[in-house]
What does this fold into?
Amino acid sequence: MATMLNTLNTDDFQNHFVVIHPLDDVPEQKVDTTSLGAIPMTRTVRISLMSLRAYLVLMMLLVFYRVVTLAGWFGHHG
Amino acid sequence: MSNRTIGVPAPGVKTEIVPVRGRVVKSKWTRDLLTFLMVVGPGLIVMVADNDAGAVSTYSQAGAQYGTHLLWVLLLLLPVTYFIQEMVVRLGIATGKGHAAMIYQRFGKWWGLFSLIDLQLVNFLTLVTEFAAINLALSKMGVDPRIGVPLAAAGLLLLVLTGSYRRWERAVVFLCLLDLAWFAVAFWLRPPVGELVSRSLIPNMPAGGLTASLMFLVIAIVGTTIAPWQLFFQQSCIADKRLRFADVKWAQLDTFVGACITITAAGCMMIAGNASRLHGFTFTDPARMAADIGSFAGGFFRNAILLLMINAAVLGTTTISLSSAWAYGEVRGWPHSLQLPVRKAPGFYLVYLSCVALAAGLTLIPGAPLQLIILGVQVLAGVILPSAIIFLQLLLNDKELLGEYANKPWNNYVNWTIIIVLFALSLILAAQVAAPNLFPAG
It folds into this structure.
């Protein structure tokens, strides 16, 4: 993989180091994410996503409460 | 050092030679330093830009209301902010993709769309607050905001339209380094060194103890220091810069240096607020604070703080707008790189332009509901931050995705603790904003 070369064994570059900027370097092969598909639903992933959903529902209820309070539906303004 | 064009074999092709441009150096120390300087950027920028207009306001307010009593909170946040962004470094380098794209691919369309829409909303509202701060600072400097704000917007557009990631990065790193001027301001306004050291290292409470106001300010400090756009920005920036696996340790160092600078600058803002408090002034906003400080420290400090406010807002604007443009481009499959000219990535630049132009325009409308927007930012950030961090943590434990770069057990102990605390704080803050009657005054 052509990234940062430590030494080049040529007469010109003996005991030298070559440093290449990432944008000048040959593009590196990364993890192929498109072929992986969805994340496996392990117990941790399931619990985390369920907790997140519960948290978001709670947040939406709070916002709804604020809106109805401001609108005076409960008979007073917040 | 010298530039050489060297030929290296392209990956997977045994005989093809692809010329790349490299610098030849003679010592390992020079090699390491040069490599670090080439890699530095995403981590430094994301951290320093986090000290945006909202952060300047929050930290100054903390200093103005509670003196130096909350410096220890910043020190606690240093490792927290580093650990979160360090995970982004590994994920970005391993996948070469942005955070929004990874959420879409691994968690599905629903969660991907939720993350994208929430990010775009909270980012846009934050941009409005940035331009509001520019508006405020320019007014205090005697510059008509109807001239200054459009000029600032135009400058922000020119910053990205160069078709070169490197040019953009160098300009923004320069702006980040300007933030070091906060150190000079704080040095001049400093309280006794012993007080600084003890209040930074030893948790302590101001007179009056733990009140509801103090608690919410601490939560606001936490929310200001760790912002959702940072996760999306840094990962996309790393992908755009094409950082390599060999760059991981340098990118981690870049992030750590950025974290140190931003936390120290935040402390400097608290010290500035403290100075105004000690001279009997009450905090209303940072621009007013700058004028107050100018009355006893001199006009130089007044102007310095106002210019630093503008610098903070400009940094925040360019990074937040880019995080929106990158995220949208990743999800839509559009070309989305600062390396591309406008004609090759029109959608990407159009999103950036729209963010900047609409936010700038909104602040120039007389009677714009800025206070409501600020509240909206707090609530929406409380929605997206925990979800973005949950996705980040789950992706970093995805060994199928990251292999050796996945989290170690100690990473998980630390990160899950941070996540649980952030969840709780976000919920409390959002509840306080949405339902203030639930909390006693204090």
Remarks:
- Residues 1-11 of chain A have pLDDT under 50 and may be disordered.
